[in-house]
Amino acid sequence: MSDVRTSTERADGTAGGPPATGGPGRTGRKRRRLTGTRPWIAAAFLLPALLLLGALVVYPIVFSVQRSLFDASGDGFVGLDNYGEMFSDEGIRTALRNNVIWVVVAPTVSTALGLIFAVLTERISWGTAFKLVVFMPMAISMLAAGIIFRLVYDQDPERGVANAVWVGVHDTFADPAPFPGAKPRPNADLRPSGGGAFTTRSAVAAASPANVPLVAVQPDEVRGAQRAVAATARPGKVTGTVWLDFTRGGGGRVDAIDPGEKALAGITVEAVRDGKVVASATTAADGTYALPADRADGARLRLPAANFAEAYRGINWLGPALVTPAIIGSYVWMWAGFAMVLIAAGLAAVPRELLEAARVDGAGEWQVFRRVTVPLLAPVLVVVLVTLMINVLKIFDLVYIIAPGSSIRSANVLALQLFQSSFGTDVDEGLGSAIAVFLLLLVLPVMYVNLRRIRKERRR
Description:
- Strand 1 (190-192) and strand 2 (198-200) form a beta hairpin.
- This protein folds into 2 domains: 81-162 and 317-459, Orthogonal Bundle (MetI-like fold), CATH 1.10.3720.10; 190-307, no CATH class.
- It has helices spanning 2-12, 24-36, 39-67, 81-88, 90-120, 127-135, 142-152, 161-173, 219-222, 293-296, 323-348, 352-360, 365-376, 378-393, 397-402, 414-423, 429-459, and strands spanning 190-192, 198-200, 212-214, 237-244, 268-273, 276-282, 288-292, 300-303.
- The strands form 2 sheets. A 5-stranded antiparallel beta sheet has the order 1-2-8-5-6, with no helix packed on it. The chain has a 3-stranded mixed beta sheet with strand order 3-4-7.
- The chain is α+β, with helices and mostly antiparallel strands.
- Helices cover 53% and strands 8% of the residues.
- It starts with a helix and ends with a helix.
């Protein structure tokens, strides 16, 4: 009897152990009830987000695909003709080529600079301040950055910072022309002889000075210059004077040195015979020069083009040849800080024991960087690179603002071409929608790679 009651108590869970509050089946049903009941609550929370996602993402994609199959008016079905026109149009092909350059160059350079900045600033005391300065451009909108760099790349060195620096470096190693733009009077004995140089028609003689009058000299270039002095004949020399044949306030005689007329110092004068330079001299502060008569007598005088070359104005950064690299430079200026911050965060998580162990084993800093640091930072570098690639595929603002009208076709990208085709002078929303769909297809592989990477990170 006791055995029967004991077995019954055990079956009821009241003896032989703690009281059972529910078997495995009941516990499983309770867990499922907690997570699986009332699905309408989860749907109610997800519905606003789903509606917003559908209105802002799904519907525009579907509409763009549908619109790309119709003509400019939207009434005639043309199938894939818009896609064919997209690849046959020279402007769109240029945009596609520029997009390839952007995707290859901009993310790579930004990531490389971010890696260098992050590694180099890790050991310096003012590294945080440096990172702040490099990251600050991220606080500027693309519109503001475009306006800034439109001024930076201005052709005028007095306005454009890039050309101001470039001209300064150039003028450090190359002497500027003494009197840019100067020239002789019309119908003078001194005539253009090609390449910007001037040569006399008549030969010179030691017996009489060969004076060379010039005009079109800027007032600033002769301010403080000495008065011109008429050269006198000297034994064994061919002499003359180079001066500004202009009297302030009017008056004066043509081809004659009048009182108050300014000397042109520093001009190179060459004696040319049979196309060869046989002697040369430089004018003194009073404008006079002297050539050896044994070589210059009977020759013709030539003033080389270097005397009159226009001042160096720098590089046409926004010309058709350099506009795309120039705009990529402005993008790198903005986004290198973004790459640096993410890479620095990943670098902070790198175990210092591994780096120290490599150094103890005899590895140099370059070997530690290349064989230890970079492999450990590979996941972070991939994140930065993929993010920048997606961002670059949609680039529009910088190109639209920085590129001038004369170079806009050379700097064209797909996002800008989409805008021009849809809302520009030749409004064709069918072609614009085709470009939008094509741009989406270009972004999808990069997004797929990014999603795969995120899933792998979650599994870890």
